[in-house]
Design brief:
Length: 219
């Protein structure tokens, strides 16, 4: 059996992913790094309290076969671009560097549709740069997931976001052909797709948009 290291386990995708990994017979140990205690308990689960600043001190404990990174913030919570970049780029990259140095063979990274290191849009450029820099670490297998709108009920009260999610859900069936990469998936479905991708790894690098994630969900 394998061991997994999870970053972002308190997030909308990461919380579902953590449960999938804990429920999977493929894993004997799941280590989650979080800034606050998790509501989940499980015999397989080890929770380490940490963040970007404390991560180097945790290095001896960050040993796994696979690392799953679903970290991210929002401009509402982190309006300062420098702080935003630390959370969406520096933290995932450092986590991946440490895991690779400790022997991890596979990395699973959640970014966003349109990620592009050359983009003029700060959000998409940041996502593209973290993809580029994690790819440069040369894991045996790198899986990058680029969701568009993440559908489903969030814990936080965000009226405008709820309205946007409702509109996107109605538009979903109309997004076909080249536009299908913008179709939304629930956080739970994205997590299921990531967990399923971990079961069958052949390609050195795989990038998953809506179509590829939907195909995984059908397997």
């Amino acid at each position: 059996m394998k061991s997994a290291l999870v970053f972002g386990a308190t997030g909308f995708i990461g919380s579902h992913l953590l449960r999938d990994l804990l429920d999977s017979p493929d894993y004997s140990l799941v280590v989650a790094v979080a800034r606050k205690p998790l509501a989940v308990t499980h015999p397989k689960l080890t929770v380490l309290m940490g963040d970007l600043a404390s991560l180097p001190a945790l290095k001896p404990q960050l040993v796994s076969d696979e690392i799953f990174i679903a970290l991210g913030t929002t401009r509402k919570h982190t309006p300062d671009e420098a702080e935003y970049y630390k959370i969406d780029h520096d933290y995932p990259l450092l986590a991946a560097e440490i895991a690779k140095a400790n022997g991890a063979r596979s990395v699973f990274l959640v970014t966003a549709v349109g990620a592009n290191a050359g983009s003029g849009v700060f959000y998409l450029r940041t996502k593209g740069e973290v993809e580029r820099d994690i790819l440069s670490l040369d894991f045996e297998h790198t899986h990058i997931f680029r969701p568009s709108m993440i559908l489903g009920a969030h814990d936080e009260d965000r009226p405008r976001e709820r309205l946007l999610i409702a509109i996107w859900g109605a538009l979903n069936p109309l997004l076909v052909g080249p536009a299908d990469c913008y179709r939304g998936l629930t956080g739970n479905d994205i997590a299921h797709a990531i967990a399923k991708a971990a079961r069958h790894q052949t390609d050195k690098v795989r990038i998953y948009h809506w179509k590829e994630m939907a195909a995984l969900l059908r397997t």
